[in-house]
Amino acid sequence: MGRRIASQVHHQVSRLMRGNFIQKEPKWYQPVLNFPPLPLPAKAPPVRTSYDQRMKPQFGRQAKLRRPKNRPMPIHYIEDDIRRQFYADHPFEAFRPATLIEKGDIQLHEVNGASWTRLRQRGRNPQPEDAIQFAVNLHQIHDIPLSQAYAQAIAQFRSLRSEHHISTTFAVMEAEDLGAVFVHGEIEHAFEKEKRALSTWEKLADVDEGSLAARKRWKMIAERHIGETDWSRGVQYVKMWQAGNRVNYSPALTRPIEENGEMGMEDDEDYEEEDEDEEYDDEGVASRSSYDVEEDDIGESEEEDYEEEGEEEEEGSSDLLTVEELEDLLEEQILGVDDLEDGEGEESEWEERGEEEGDWEEGGKEDEWEGEEFEEETEVVPAPEGKGSEFFDFTKK
């Protein structure tokens, strides 16, 4: 017996009994006839349109028929195909502004169906959707092939759009000739703002750096280094040493320090005058102020400056030590301990300088320097209070 549905088993048994295939009646046959099972609900086939894709035979073979699956089929409308092709042919139509507000009810146009034979019947400025609906109307109502209906709708759409463009262009030209002035839109206003913003950049480029610095009272402008940047091999230093000039690296103080630790207004003016009165000596060394002293600046006029400073300090304040008293203290405390180290360092410097000028021989003078204990004459200049606690000395034999 073939495969049957459970609700139809008793029908199959009755047919077999009539054909004498079953001689004895089953015991369950009469109860099932008295109380038959419930029939299954009817399963109606889905209603499909003529646009459904059907399987066609390939190369003359008969297509294999398959039972439909219980899943929704894809929804397809002819308007989608026409709309897709329309925007592929007219891509700039998608950039035109359109209203996205929908009303409560969508009312059909008065011209519709068989009476709609020309696209102009719905206006002289048609929209893309009007052209699409006109092509569908020609295909479904007037029984025109889809390709021919699309070509006819597109031709009328292009002619109406060109007429509208020409009419609006000439209307604007006539209005301008008659004296009409059109107000700028938001796009034009944005361009004007951008131009005004860019014009400010040209003004900023014309402003001098000096004027900017003048506006800021306490702005410092760092100047470039002025002078030689190459190493002179100590030639200038040796010349100053042979001339008997004394090197001084400590800062000079021209006025006594007040109790509050600040200089007066007169002292500031003196420092400014010293900066302005810089002059070069005959030997080519600049005698600069106390704030501009460098390591290579050597001059004979510095000795007189320090003597004048000592006299002014004695007159201004009795608490400050004199130059002689400071020298005595330094000789007792500092020079007594570092005497040997200073002698060794100066010995190597003298040897290097002697080799450069040719005054020293390779022979016995080096041995004499090694075995001899020479005395040093040291001149010390004290560093004033508030300007640093370091002391520098220059030794000559």
Automatic annotation (TrEMBL):
Residues 387-397 have a biased composition (Basic and acidic residues). Residues 259-284, 292-331, 338-379 have a biased composition (Acidic residues). One of its GO terms (molecular function) is structural constituent of ribosome. The keyword Translocase does not apply. It is found in: Mitochondrion. Residues 252-397 are annotated as: Disordered. InterPro entries: Ribosomal_mS23_fun. GO terms for cellular component: mitochondrial small ribosomal subunit. It comes from the Eukaryota. Keywords: Mitochondrion, Ribonucleoprotein, Ribosomal protein. The keyword Electron transport does not apply. Pfam families: MRP-S25. Belongs to the mitochondrion-specific ribosomal protein mS23 family. This is Small ribosomal subunit protein mS23. It comes from Mycena alexandri.
